[in-house]
């Protein structure tokens, strides 16, 4: 039995260009460090992802998939941070 646990198995509509932002102020581009501030254009909590105006797919674990296929690892802890007093 194969395990299809990859987050690449979800299906999305064909995404062409996302340079058509009509928001004011304009959304940050996908290569901006501010990319998560873009407006949501699709939200699929049941699948655990959201599509931002700049074409970035934002996963509920804070991972991201950029329009050029680049994957950004989750950068915010899902679990409460466990403070280890090591000393
Ligand atoms: Zn926009």
Automatic annotation (TrEMBL):
Q: Where is the composition biased (Polar residues)?
A: 1-22
What segment(s) does the record annotate as region Disordered?
1-32
Q: Which Pfam families match?
A: DUF5999
Name of the protein in question: DUF5999 family protein
């Amino acid at each position: 039995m194969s395990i299809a646990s990859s987050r690449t198995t979800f299906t999305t509509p064909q995404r062409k260009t996302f340079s058509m932002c009509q928001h004011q102020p304009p959304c940050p581009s996908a290569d901006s460090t501010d990319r998560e501030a873009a407006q949501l254009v699709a939200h699929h909590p049941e699948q655990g992802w959201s599509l931002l105006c700049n074409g970035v797919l934002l996963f509920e674990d804070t991972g991201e998939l950029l329009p050029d296929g680049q994957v950004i690892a989750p950068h915010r802890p899902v679990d409460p941070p466990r403070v280890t007093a090591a000393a």
